[in-house]
Design goal:
By secondary structure, the chain is mainly alpha-helical. The strands form 2 sheets. The protein has a 3-stranded antiparallel sheet with strand order 4-3-5, with no helix packed on it. The protein has a two-stranded antiparallel ribbon with strand order 1-2. Helix 17 packs parallel to helix 20. The longest helix has 32 residues.
Length: 485
Amino acid sequence: MLWSLILVLVFVAIIVALAYGSEWILANGEGIYVEFAGQTLDLDPLRTLIFAVLVVVAIYIAVRLLGMLLGSIAFFLGRNTALSRFLNRRRERRGNRILSEGMLALASGDSKLAMRKALLAEKKLSQPEIGKLLAAQAAEQMGDKDLAKEAYKDLLTNDKTRFLAIRGLMKHKQGEGDEATALQLAKKALDINPSHDETSTQLFLMQAHEGDWSGARKTLGIKRRYRTAPKDMATRRDGLLALCQAIEFRKAGNLEEARKAAMDALKEVPNFAPAVVEGAKALIESKNKGKAASAIRSAWASEPHPSLAAAYAEIEPDETPAQRVKRFADLVRRDTDHPEARMLMAEVNIAAEDFPAARRALGDLTEKDPTARAMTLMAAIERGEGSDDSTVKAWLAKAVTAPRGPAWVCETEGAVYAEWQPICDVCGGFDTLTWKAAPAGEVMADTSVGAMLPLIIGALEDKSSDAEDGPETVDSTAEEATEKA
């Protein structure tokens, strides 16, 4: 606004100056006298002024015509001129308009129209790779994978579109089932743009599916560095990957590396039962039973789990049943009413043959939270107290039809697993398994029930060996219970 005002004032000042100058020349000037080639020209002041103006206009016109002539010659020679720039801008505007129409067609699902617009835009745009990218996406939408693949290959030569091209080819290879090539392309894409969240996540999942725990931890480190993953989630996933490494090293017999990885897992996820179990193994092997017990007690206080009790038992494998009852009482003392704590104390008291204490520990769990494990424990208690076979078998029959209790359940698909694993076989997700009550109707092997049945059934067989139909009845009950449990 201010600049426009200044220009107007300057223009008015020039007009006023010319007016006063002309008036002064007319009032005081004497004109000019010119003699050239035998010709004489005598002009008064007014004619002199007009002649000067005409000369200036003629020079201006000549300069402009000369410029146009030189510009035309340069244009036909292919040089960058004002005319070529004008035509380029016009073509660019048309290309952008066609590209916009193509993008709208792609978004609306009209892939054929989007493809035609992409090919037109590619010819008019100064950056044809944008049109090629639209063509690749339109080809994907049409289902023409070969055309999309060729378009992405053309984009590989441009540094600006190389990342997009590699990602497109990666998805193409995934669609073909070529996971090995897709994995390598994902690594290249992440090298080009390490801050890209989707690419790092895809690479992480591919490495996890391949069992490349070290590579997955490295990728997770990149996500941490560029903050493309929440801090708490990254910490948990790193702990789970370390746990997977520990399990793999232990299976391979590399105990030293297994212990290191287990300690990393215990540090990152100190309340996750599988990680605590592996960490406790490492601590026990390192002759550090005190820390192992402390880690298990801490995890149990957070979420009681049967595997924690099994690991707690391994700390003192040679203790007597009475000593075990006392030591496990310290484990569950913070929440003795938890179902897992009550069943655990019932088990250790059964092992110590203190059946009244086992009944007191179990309490009314068979009524408030009737699970197969609780029913089986009750059958063992009845057998230990000398109840008749019909009573014991009645509890076993209830165990067959009772809910399985908590299990590892996939939060995405609801698939149930007896043991924790990092990836769900159904949905393919990483870290989707949670320890909770299994959905009704789901079948899962209950290892605790399976471990108790031989003891109970064996005792029944011993007691009823003289009965006329006892063994056959008991054997059929045991077989049915074992299959369904």
